[in-house]
Design goal:
- The protein is 2% helix and 56% strand.
- The strands form 3 sheets. Strands 1, 13, 14, 15, 16, 17, 18 and 19 form an 8-stranded antiparallel beta sheet that branches. A 7-stranded antiparallel beta sheet has the order 2-3-4-11-6-9-12, with no helix packed on it. It has a 4-stranded antiparallel beta sheet with strand order 5-10-7-8, with no helix packed on it.
- It has 230 residues and is mainly beta.
- β16 and β17 form a beta hairpin.
- The protein has one domain: Jelly Rolls (Sandwich), CATH 2.60.120.
Length: 230
């Protein structure tokens, strides 16, 4: 038994996929939304209203054409590069890495996403069920700072309310992050020790509690229930 009933999923053990100009590995797939995930033991099945995570990149000068979303909260973390958006919530918006945009699709949106400046752009995209259906579409942008965990969804701050709290941090060597509650975390970059077990870029970590200490520093996505986060 690993500490805190911890499980680690390695991105390199999963199939590489994608669509249009996006290359990605789907690492979290809730069986209620993806029937093919029901019998899969190699991916995470999510936590509460956290239903999906994919890690990948936009090809240089390419992306996803106009497509719809409805009744989903989407966190797009761009670790490196720059991504542009067009659609029903505005043309010309952009995310410059390291940065985050959270889209509340609500009653429905259409948008396209694409790399800017003719360069590849890294992407971590995370989906959550909203607290209720039929909410007004909106979006928020977040700037990330070294050595800090930024709450981008849920929690008690000025974010879209959600049953889950999503934090993203650009951690420096020696930084420590801990939770005594059920969680799922994604290491986007760098190396760390999760409850004493080495983890590195591309790893999903899930369990009943976490004590994470960075080694080289790392980019971390941490998700847990809002009710236990507060």
């Amino acid at each position: 038994m690993t500490p805190h009933n911890m499980r680690i999923i390695h991105r390199g053990d999963l199939p590489l996929g994608g669509f249009a100009g996006i290359v990605e590995t789907r690492m979290v797939m809730h069986p209620g939304l993806w029937r093919e995930a029901r019998d899969r033991t190699d991916v995470s099945h999510g936590l509460g209203d956290f239903v999906y995570l994919a890690s990948g990149y936009f090809k240089a000068g390419d992306g996803a054409p106009m497509h719809p979303h409805k009744d989903v909260d989407i966190v797009s973390f761009i670790p490196n590069g720059a991504v542009g958006h067009e659609g029903t919530m505005g043309h010309g918006t952009s995310i410059h890495g390291p940065g985050v945009q959270v889209q509340r699709a609500g009653t429905g949106i259409q948008h396209a996403e694409f790399s800017l400046n003719g360069q590849k752009a890294d992407l971590v995209q995370i989906w959550f069920l909203p607290p209720e259906k039929g909410l007004a579409p909106a979006y928020q942008d977040f700037t990330l700072r070294k050595g800090e965990m930024t709450t981008v969804l849920g929690g008690s701050g000025d974010t879209f309310k959600n049953a889950m709290t999503c934090q993203i941090g650009l951690l420096e060597p020696g930084d420590r992050i801990a939770t005594r509650h059920r969680f799922i975390a994604f290491i986007s970059d760098g190396e760390a020790f999760a409850s004493g077990t080495p983890v590195s870029a591309g790893d999903i970590v899930e369990g009943d509690g976490l004590e994470l200490v960075t080694e080289t520093g790392c980019d971390l996505v941490l998700i847990q229930y809002t009710e236990t986060f507060q």
